[in-house]
Structure formats: C-alpha cells, structure tokens
Write a structure and sequence with these properties.
178 residues, 5 strands, alpha+beta
Length: 178
C-alpha cells in the first residue's frame, strides 16, 4: 500500500460547511468590521475629541502610540471634590530628563530617557472626557515595526497566562514553561 492511498488528500473545493448565503453574510460583516478598524487606525488625537470613559481615551492613545512606534504612560492625574479622576496627562513612556550623579565617562549604559515632549491632556467635563491639549512632535526617530517590543505594548494571551500561572503553582520553573 502506498502513502498516497493512505493519506487520501482532500481539496478545499470538496469541503462545504455552509451554504452560499451564509458565506456572503459573513463576508459582508467582515468587510464592515475591516472598514471600521481602518477608520480607527487613521485617527490621530486632536483637540476637542470626546470619549465616554477614561479607559477609552487611554486605549485610543495607546493604539495610536503602537501604530507610531512608542509607548505611553500616565504622567499625572488629579481628582475632583467627589474623589473621581477629573484630569489625566498621557505622555511618551521615556519622557523626562534624567539627571545622574555618575559621570557619563563611568556609565556603561546611556540613559533611556529622552527629553521628548509628546503628550495629550484629557479633562472630564459633564459626562464625557475631552482632549484639551495635544503635542505629537517627537525629537527622535520612531520605529513602528519594533513597537511590539516596547514594555507598555507587550500583550500576553489569556491561555498562555493561565498556563504560566498553573505551572507556577505546580512548581515548574519559568524556563521550562516557555
């Protein structure tokens, strides 16, 4: 008996899981979803943009940062009289000016901070969050292809996280888990 008789390959034309009406409906819904995502990808933070919740503002700016190739962190925030957050400033993750007491000649690694002034300010007014100030100018090069390497942009799959937690509870070393 030869291997071709044992394997008996099936072509894609032989497989039919649904009728043609269902295929067209799925294709239409997928194209609408793709168009919506493309429109979201084109958006740039602008003064006057409004959001329902602060989490949506953070997610929007984080997605913009991932597309451009930088990380985001919260620099400052303040609470109002009702102890609710009413102001938040999102900045480039390596923003700031680091002053070291060690002379540069003795340092083995250069500082990671840059004096980059890229940030947005968001204020809660009534029941929505409005972008008040936007500065999107960077004083350094960006690499969108390496954006996934930035700590703030790394994501872990839920199943992988659960497996790592179970292995940790069982006493499996982390190098063996990976």
């Amino acid at each position: 008996m030869s291997t071709s008789q044992v394997l008996n390959p099936i072509s894609l034309e032989d497989i039919s899981l649904c009728n043609d009406d269902q295929v067209q409906e799925v294709t239409l819904m997928d194209s609408i979803t793709v168009l919506t995502k493309e429109r979201e990808l084109d958006e740039v933070p602008e003064i006057g943009m409004a959001f329902e919740m602060v989490d949506k503002v953070k997610e929007f700016y984080k997605q913009y940062a991932i597309r451009c190739g930088f990380g985001v962190r919260v620099r400052s925030s303040s609470k109002g009289e009702d102890n609710e957050i009413c102001f938040i400033k999102l900045v480039y993750s390596r923003e700031g000016n680091y002053v070291s007491y060690i002379p540069p000649e003795l340092k083995s690694q250069p500082t990671k901070t840059k004096n980059c002034a890229t940030w947005i300010t968001v204020v809660k007014k009534a029941a929505q969050w409005d972008i008040r100030n936007v500065i999107l100018h960077h004083n350094h090069d960006l690499s969108p292809m390496k954006s996934r390497m930035i700590c703030e942009n790394k994501k872990i799959n839920v199943q992988v996280k659960r497996t790592l937690d179970m292995n940790d509870e069982a006493g499996v070393r982390i190098n063996k888990s990976f």
